[in-house]
Specification:
The complex is a heterodimer of chains A (315) and B (104). Chain A has 315 residues and is of the alpha/beta class. Chain A has 11 helices and 12 strands. Chain B has a single domain, classed as Coenzyme PQQ synthesis protein D (PqqD) (Arc Repressor Mutant, subunit A, Orthogonal Bundle). Chain B has a 3-stranded antiparallel sheet. The chains are: A alpha/beta (315), B alpha+beta (104). The interface between A and B is medium-sized, with 16 and 17 residues.
């Protein structure tokens, strides 16, 4: 049975950024309560949540209600915030993008230092990297780092678009041509592979390259979950189908997640996802990828029939 | 298995709004076999149970026997307990094989 319409999302990303208005800042605990009341299982706090004045209250509310991933860039002030917290809440999602250099690769010395500091604070970090054109070539090095330092999980989420471009633009997003190059790098890497951490790869085409022969592990996948099990809340409390689909569906805390998920705007998103994209007609693998990331495709790839950015064409 | 218990590693919730819609559809004589009312996550994978499966799942608290679960289900749908006993046993067995239920 495919995934039916849900009452509220199961996974949600929430941007808590320094550029929020004072009014929004005051609403953060109320937004957190709405998310908790919505029965969301997994919440990822993005931006710089630890540095926010309302962090303690937000973490207290969500920490009791769901599994929390708290993004960190590994800044000293973020580590200081963790030092001052009375109890460990959630898991740290260490954003590796700040440890990358186009010319020098991964700054493993600094990354190791931050991982060590987090472990001293009893946090076992998950490392995350949003795949971009200029960092695809660093993924292998990051995997070796994870192996050498016993990092249990490497997460490769899809890019955020809309209000939450995080230091990159549409031109930085990888396309299928970039994956062709990455595929060759990956084959080289696999000649001398390392002990792999658990990989959480959002993009199906990247996943296909990095986990060959593991199609069975995605056998339950039945298509894009934006506006169903997935959602995104921006720094103003506006709810979107997912981080890669900038379309306001409602606003927290003015409305509940249940009401936003029952509204026609959300249903329209699901109906749009249910249609086969022009660029996917006739593809033999459509029942495997279901059109891939529909948010990025709808917003950034209309010229190619709204195909996934990383798909070269019908197979 | 005498008293099935939900695997505590599985997170789950009842889709209450959806369940109400499905019950209404059932009363209207529609086929609701493929309509999910309970969602559960195991090892990062999402699964849904339909109305009957969801009701059985909710009763698998490690306290109730298969007979008691079948009795509750029979009462809910106004049928004889003997009419649902084998279905309950089959469903519980399936979920046990998947590791979603354990012996309570």
């Amino acid at each position: 049975m495919g995934l039916d319409l849900l009452d509220t999302p199961v996974r949600l990303t929430w941007d808590i950024s320094a550029d929020a208005t004072e009014e929004t800042d005051l609403c953060l605990p109320a937004i957190a309560s709405r998310i908790a009341d919505g029965g969301v299982f997994f919440v990822t706090l993005q931006g710089s949540p630890l540095l926010h004045a309302a962090a303690d209250e937000v973490l207290r509310i969500l920490g009791d209600a769901c599994q929390l991933l708290i993004s960190s860039h590994g800044y000293p002030e973020e580590l200081e915030c963790l030092t001052q917290r009375p109890r460990r809440v959630g898991q740290i999602l260490l954003d590796a993008s700040g440890f990358m250099d186009v010319h020098c690769g991964v700054d493993t010395v600094r990354l190791k230092s931050v991982v060590t500091s987090l472990r001293q604070l009893a946090y076992e970090p998950v490392i995350a990297l949003t795949p971009l054109r200029n960092n695809l070539c660093n993924i292998q090095e990051l995997l070796r780092f994870c192996s050498e330092h016993n990092i249990a999980k490497l997460k490769l989420p899809n890019a955020h678009i809309g209000d939450s471009f995080q230091g990159y633009s549409t031109a930085d997003l990888p396309r299928w041509q970039d994956l062709d190059h990455f595929r060759n790098l990956w084959l080289d890497f696999m000649e001398n592979p390392c002990q792999m951490p658990t990989l959480e790869i959002h993009d199906l085409f990247l996943w296909e390259i990095m986990t060959p022969g593991q199609q069975q592990s995605r056998s339950e996948y039945d298509g894009c979950q934006a506006g169903n099990s997935l959602s995104h809340v921006d720094s103003q409390g506006v709810v979107h189908p997912c981080a890669a689909w900038p379309q306001p569906l409602g606003k927290l805390p003015d409305q509940s997640l249940e009401d936003i998920w029952a509204a026609p705007e959300r249903m329209a998103v699901r109906a749009q996802i249910g249609k086969v994209a022009d660029g996917c007609h006739g593809c033999a693998d459509l029942n495997i990828c279901f059109g891939g990331c529909r948010g990025l495709a709808f917003h950034l790839n209309r010229s190619e029939g709204e195909r996934d950015l990383m798909c070269s064409g019908p197979r | 298995m005498n008293k099935p218990l939900r695997n505590p590693e599985i997170v789950w919730r009842v889709e209450k709004r959806r369940q109400a819609e499905v019950l209404k559809a059932l009363e209207a004589g529609q086929d609701v076999d493929d309509s999910g009312t309970v969602i559960l996550l195991q090892s990062g994978m999402m699964h849904q149970l339909n109305l009957v499966g969801g009701l059985i799942w909710q009763q698998c608290d490690g306290e109730q026997t298969l007979a008691a679960i079948a009795g509750g289900l029979a009462k809910e749908f106004s049928v004889e307990q003997t009419d649902v006993e084998s279905d309950v046993a089959e469903f519980v067995n399936d979920l046990t094989m998947r590791g979603w239920l354990i012996n309570g």
